[in-house]
Amino acid sequence: MPRGDGQLSHDLIPGEKGPQDACGVFGVWAPGEDVAKLTYYGLYALQHRGQESAGIATSNGKQILVYKDMGLVSQVFDERSLSTLRGHIAVGHCRYSTTGGATWENAQPTLGGHHSGTVALAHNGNLVNSAELRELVEARGDELSDADSKIHRITDGELRRGNTTDTALVTALLAHDQESTLEAATMELLPKLRGAFCFVFMDENTLYAARDPQGLRPLVIGRLERGWVVASETAALDIVGASFVREVEPGELVTIDEDGLRTQQFAEPARKGCVFEYVYLARPDTTINGTTVHEARVEMGRTLAREHPVEADLVMPTPESGTPAAIGYAQESGIPFGQGLVKNAYVGRTFIQPSQTIRQLGIRLKLNPLKHVIKGKRLIVVDDSIVRGNTQRALVRMLREAGAAEIHVRISSPPIKWPCFFGIDFATRAELIATGLGVEEIATSLGADSLGYISHDGMVAATEQPVDQLCTACFSGIYPMELPSEDRLGKGLLELEFSPTQEAVRRP
Ligand code: SF4
To answer: Which of 8, 12, 23, 459 is catalytic?
Structure first.
C-alpha cells in the first residue's frame, strides 16, 4: 500500500526514493504524566527518521501493552488507541526498514518474555553482525521452562511470529537470559553487538537506553519536571518540553527508575558519529554533539560558495533539505537567495496510488516552478546530496522548461560512492550515479551547465567535529569498523532463516 512520505525532499519523484533513515526512538519515564501522548508527540517530531511503521509500548508497573501498525505516526494512532496505553513508562518507535522488510511483524517496539517480566525494545541503527547473533540464537535454541513451568524456546515470540529483524534477535537474546536480571543480561549482550545501535527499552518498572561504542546515531537524554526522556534527536525533547541534559555517551547503558538515573559503560567509547546526520538526516533544529544541524548546513553552503563559485543571478534550494546550504551559498557569494519552486507539501501524504497520467508528471506532482522568478535567470540550484541523479535531472529539465538561462548545480556533500551498513539505505552501489561517473559526466547526465560538490574536508569542517570522530564511509569508503563478508550483510539476511510461516531454519 502506498504510504505518505512526510516531508523528505528526496522523495520528489513517485517511486524514486532518496536516502532512507533507520528509525527514530523515544522513551519516557514519568509517573503522573500521560506517557503515551508524550511519546506520540516525540515520535511525531522524529517522523522524518522512519515512515513505514510506528509503535508505542507502555507499562503501568504490572503489565506492558504494545500498539503498532504500518504508516505514519498520525495514521497509526488516534485518541482512542492512545487512551488504552496507560502507565508511567513508554518506549516508541518509527521505522524505516534496514534489516528485514517493511511488514507489520517487523514493526517495533519488539516484545520478549524475560523470567522477571517483559522486555519492550526499540532500535535505531543497523547491526552488522546479525548473522553471528542468529547463530548465537540458534546455539541457545534449547527449551526453557519459566516460573509457571511453561515451556518456551528462544525462537518463540517475535522470531516465531515472523519478525526478521536484527532487533528481534537482540530482544530474543535479552529475554532468553533466565538467570540474570535484565540489566545484567544487557551488560553481557551489548559488547557482543557490532554496528550501529541506539536502543530504548523497558521492562515493567525500568527504562533503559544504550548507544553503540562508535555513537554512530544520535541519542540524547532530557529532563521533565516529573521524569526523564530519551530521544534520537534534541528536537524531540523540545516538542515535549523536556530540557536537554546530555547525550547518551558512546558505549553507555543508562538505567532510569524510581531511584533516578544510573549509568554504566559497557564498552570503551570510540566516537565515529555519522556525518550524514549533519548533511541531511537529522532535523535542522537538532543539535548533535554540540553542533546545531542548521548551522552546519549553512556553513556547508558557505564553503561550497568558496570552493565552487560561479556568476549567477539567483541561488535557490531544492526544497526543503537544500535550503540551509542555499542560504549559506547566497551569504558567501553575495548572490540573492530566492525560492524558485513551490512544494506541494501534502501530496506525498495521499493513500491514493497515482494514475499513469499523474505518475508521468513525475517531479511536477510535488514541485511547481515559479516561472516569473526563473525566466531568463542564471540559477544556482543547491541540494544536499545526489543519490541516483534522477531527481536532479528532472529538476534541471523542469527549470529549463520554465525558461532558466543557465543552471549550475551545487551539492553540499561529496559524491556518494559507497553503501552504508549502519542504518541508512542508499541505492545499491551500481545505482549510485557517482560510482561510475566523474563530476563532468554527472553534470552532462543531469543536463546542468556546471556541477560542484563540496570537498570532504569542507563538509567535515562545517560539522565542527574532529575528522577522526566522524564516520564518512559513504563518501570516503573508509569504514569505522571491520565488516563481515558480503554474504553475511544485507537487508534480507534474516528473511530466509526465520520465515513468517515456519520455525527457525538452521543454515546449512
Ligand atoms: S556510511 Fe555514511 S550514512 Fe552510513 S553511518 Fe557512515 S557517514 Fe553515515
So the answer is: 23
